[in-house]
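Hello,

Our lab assistant flagged a job as stuck in the queue for most of the afternoon. It eventually completed. Since we weren't sure the result was trustworthy after the delay, we are filing this so someone can double-check. Below is the sequence as submitted and the structure that was eventually returned. Let us know if re-running is recommended.
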Amino acid sequence: MAGEIHRITQETLDKLKAEYLELTTAGRTSIARTIESARLMGDLSENGDYHAAKDAQGKMESRIRQIDNVIRNHEIVERDEHADAVQYASIVQVVYEGDNDDEFQEFFIGSIEERPDDVLVASPTSPLGEALLNHSIGELVEYEAPSGVLRVKIVGLR
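-- returned structure --
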């Protein structure tokens, strides 16, 4: 995904830079020690600790590359706490057509890197995210899903 511009807030950029620094310094040192300790246990072909440590190293290096890509290819966006329409970084409460308003689902419109806990993410470029942008509470919007056209009503915004 090199070259893709990641729209993130300054707060998220700062968080990612701190995670990157931690992983590339203490994280790499720690995993190297774990691998070396496992290596000293003998035969690597049947050494579960060694293989687990190498797997953890691979996952950590993948995360480092992912963060590096976001840091190198980002655009800072500002969050408007008082917006009355769905925008980037909004948390939108929607109900699907035919459901009761109290059966809402919440979606964070933005990057998965910024996702608040326990909230689903709808990328602003996804069919749902794109359909919700710039609409307000009470509006019914529709979007194309694999199963056909779906309609959702915006019942909350935070």
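-- support follow-up --
The delay was a queue issue, not a problem with the job. The result is valid. The domain at 6-76 is CATH 1.10.287.180 (Helix Hairpins). DSSP finds three helices and seven strands in the chain.
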